[in-house]
Predict the structure.
Amino acid sequence: MDVATRSADWLGEVVNLMREPSPTVPVPELLELLPGAFGVWAASWNWFDPDGSFGMVMNPAELPLNERETLDVWSTGELFDRHALVQWFQLTGDLRPWTMARVPTGVISARRRLPLERSLARMGMEHQLSIVYRQNGPTHRAFVMARGRSDFSDDDLAVARVVQRSLEALDRQAAVVRRMTGARPGTDLGLTGRELAVLQLIAEGETTRRTSRALACSPRTVEKHLEHAYRRLGVRDRLNAVRVLQVAGVLGAAPVPDYRLDAAPGAYRGPVRRSTP
């Protein structure tokens, strides 16, 4: 398909999302739609906040299992200076959609980026296209598409510029909805009140048994609530379910433990903080 057709198809999807205004950018839906727009199999939502916390949510969620060691190091922030796109945006301030392969060696040498790119290649993610939709000082929000073997084309970059403008529009709409309604972000994920209660307690560090006692039900019932919540949220375990709700802003204000991701699709430094899309 040509750029015009791909762009029109994408904008049709965004129009559908905007017909149901939300106080947050619909990250889970976008992570499902974006790979199709670029013919890739992997995408992530990446964030940095002024308090120093950072992380990502990935689709598919099981992807990090392929390269555990690299992702463990990434979670410390030690590899940021080896990632070509991170360096490109920091040094140039140019926020147009860009790819790793197009970052010149004057920004980061081939030797310096090679170890990370070898690990990414083993995951089939050595070519990445980043689309930033919010950058305000240290606050950063972006979607990243990834694939192996060949770089994204000029046509892909043209489509990415259309995608970037549409993401900025979604972000602005979400901000307006928050101001107008005073809504707490992410209140429409299809979860029952009981499922939300279970996940809130899990986020506070409670075990299945303690959660069951708090809610006056059996541990088996708690597990059933979790299974149902996983299906609704499109995740496979409690860490990622909690993460989706943190990203959506659904969980209450209780402190959330410092989860060190065990084969999970994101990485955080310091205490996990709720981060609004």
Notes: Residues 253-274 have pLDDT under 50 and may be disordered.
